[in-house]
Amino acid sequence: MWNTIKFTDVKKPDTNLLPKEVFKDDAKWILVPSKIILKTLCVWPESQSKLTKCISVFIIINYGFLLTHIMRYIIDKDTNLAGAAYAVTGFMVAAESVSRRILLMFFAKKISKILQVVYYDFWPSDITGKGVIPKASVLIVIATIGYFSAGYSYIFNNLIGQFYERKIPFKSIYPFDHMKSPYFELIYVWQSLLLVEFDVHLTVFDFFLAGLISNCVAQFKLLRRFLVQNFEKAVKIAETDPQRGTDEAYKLILICQEIDGMLSMFTLIMYIGNVATLCSSSFLMAVARAEGVRPLIYFWGHLSQILFYCASGHDLGLEVSATALRAMFL
């Protein structure tokens, strides 16, 4: 008799703790570090409360002040072209981070529902055999290390280098002489905290989104193997239930549609901002040699971000097409 696969969903426990299966799963574990860090930043969708919302609103207001003063620097008549280009890059990365915080606040309920499906309804990665998913997870981690290195190089270069040069991290203008003590120290600390927050938030959000998409990719891959095993090896057995595969495909399509609905406009704006930042940082590398490696870090980080998103979408598209072709020609 042919051996059929028994599918068992992860049962949701009574507590808020994640089941142990999530930590052991080759695909789902990627979401755990993102949850820990984003929860620390008070933006994790499943942990939204009045307190976290108030903290997020306070941070967004601070970003609003920062962006206003950066814009004043950009349009100031005494600002040269290189200085304006450098300020534009800082403006874009700060705007990227605040847009991510707003997005996580606005779509908290939808993202929470998707996460519940991923945690408790997605098939375990070893359900069709060992070693199906780990390679993809390792590639995401390697890509993330390269992406994070750009972000945190940006932090250390700006904080340490600017402090020794007695400059604030962002090029900005204030209605008072901010170079006098204690104004300089206060603004330096304020901008430094925002810089660390938005850099960590930006990179971890992208890692979270890549992890979410990689789980969808893993499910399509498992579904394709499920179709092979249940149609080619067990089609003559009465216990075989191909409807289960259909239900799983429908659920995955709905989740992908939800993600697309939430992020389509965001990714469009992000790509426009990334292209603008790449252009301004390329200009700075050519004309502002005194800025050192800072324009290169801008360029490296945003190019890595574009490749990061493109690779995730490309993998998802390939797996969806491969699953559809497998179902068509069985």
From TrEMBL:
Q: Which GO terms describe its biological process?
A: signal transduction
Q: Which UniProt keywords apply?
A: Cell membrane, Membrane, Olfaction, Receptor, Sensory transduction, Transducer, Transmembrane, Transmembrane helix
Query: Any idea which GO molecular function terms this record carries?
Result: odorant binding; olfactory receptor activity
Transmembrane parts of this sequence: 54-75, 81-103, 136-155, 268-288
**Membrane topology, as annotated:** Multi-pass membrane protein
Top-level taxon: Eukaryota
The main location class comes to membrane
Q: Where in the cell is it found?
A: Cell membrane
CC terms in the record's Gene Ontology section: plasma membrane
Which InterPro entries has this protein been placed in?
7tm6_olfct_rcpt
Which PANTHER family does this UniProt record tie to the protein? ODORANT RECEPTOR, ODORANT RECEPTOR 19A-RELATED
| Designated name of the protein | Odorant receptor
